[in-house]
Each structure stands twice: as C-alpha cells, then as structure tokens.
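Allow me, if you will, to draw on your knowledge of protein folds for a short while. A protein sequence and the structure tokens that stand for its backbone fold form the material at issue. I would ask you to consider whether the tokens describe a fold that such a sequence might reasonably adopt. Thank you for your consideration; the sequence and its tokens are set out here:
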Amino acid sequence: MLSLQLVPPPRRPPRTSLPPSPSLLEPFSVMEEFLLPIVMLVPLLHGMKITSPILVVQLKMRSLLHLSFYLPLIEVHPPVEDGDDLLQDEPKDSHVDLLTPFHNSLKQIVRETSAVTIRRVLERLAVHYCSQRMAWKLLKDVSKSAKRKAKRGMPAYLFLFNISRTTFRGHALGVIASWIVQIIMTFYRYFIRKPDNDGENLNRAEKNRLFWREIYSSTIKFTSSLIFASIGGGIGALFHPSIGQWIGSALGDLAGPFIVIFVFEKLHLQI
C-alpha cells in the first residue's frame, strides 16, 4: 500500500532589522512628489462651451437680466388729480429705447466670457510656472476645502482665518482675470475706438490721465472685492461650511466696491 507522508514547509529565516541607507529610502523621496493632490485643469474655452449648460445659462441670464441696464426704462408717474386735467399737456408718444440696454447686456456677456477664458489661461500659467503646492492652493475648490477644515474641530477664530485665507487664494485668479478684462476695455475706449461725436475728442495727455485714473479706480475696486469676498467667505463658513462660504463670498464680492466708494466719499478722496 502507498503511504502519504506530510513534509513540513521549510522555515523562513528570521527577519533582521536593516539600518536605513540612502539606497532604501530613495524610492520614498521620489514618491513624495506625488503625494500632493493632482491639479485638474478645466478646458480653456470652458466658458464658451455648450457642454456645461448650467454655467452657460447662469452666465447669460445674469448678463441679460442685469437690472442696472433696464432701470432707466422704469418711470414713475405721479397720480393726476381731476382739477389738474386742464393744466396737463397732451401726452406725447414716448419711444422706449430697448436697443441700448440690450447692447450693454451683450457687452456684459462678452466681458464675463472673456474673464472666464482669461482665468483658464492664468490657471495654466500657474500650473506651469508655480510649484505644485502653490498651484493646488490657487485652483482648489474652496467649498470642499471648507468642508474638510470643518471636520478638524479647530477653534472658531482659527477656522475663520483659514477659510478667509483659502477663499483669498481661490478667488484671486478670477479677480485678476476680471481686472485684466477691465483694463483692456478701458484701453480700447480711450486709444482705439473712434469718438462718436466731436465732444469726445481729447488730446493725448488728457487720454493718458483718464486712462491711468481708470486703472487706479479699477485696481482699488477689484482689490476691495477680493478682500471682502475673503472675509465674507470666512464669516459665512461659520454658519455652514459649504453653502455659507459660497454665499458669504458672493455677498462680500458685491459689497466690497460699494463699501470702498462710500469710505472714499466720506474721506473726500477721489476714486
């Protein structure tokens, strides 16, 4: 008869602790470069593509329904008493100009689309010419970062400071892009566009003075927008890490220029 004999497996040699050597630690030093989050770039013409319908609809509707362009069309007529009917002149047919507000809305569409495109260009410049850590800070999603920071259980003042700093970095490229678009449009208005009437004919020195004054005013307004957006984002994150940060940042972005204009008027300074 055949007999089966179980042979025990061979014993492994005991593990010995090896001293750290540069050859063993070299792969870990190489892997440290890939520990940072991967920066995902948005397509360059993302603001013009139909592949993002929500962004396009939000951008176009916000520009078309800009109330400041259509407020002059709203006229308030006081009620007329019976005794004043004879004193009133015959009503004249007043033509409502809808073409000018529509042209202003189209300009606003071009302005915001150009700002989005220039921001994508700045993102690519940041990825290529800045460090990976700095590029990640400039391109990160601020709302998601606020959610992650809210789970760390840090004090309120430290959480406010961190979210404000993160909002400042994440909002900086968008503000710089809008500032560049404003400077380009100002340069076109003073040096390239032909004047509509003879009253707009200015000499070279006067155009230069007005141009640099516009740059000074735009720089102050966009800087205040960035600062107050950062403060508003930090305050809003105290109420809700994601939605509160977004609402606070948007409100600060809108209120910043108005606050600076009010302060400059109180101090009797030109802006």
Remarks:
- Residues 15-36, 49-55 have pLDDT under 50 and may be disordered.
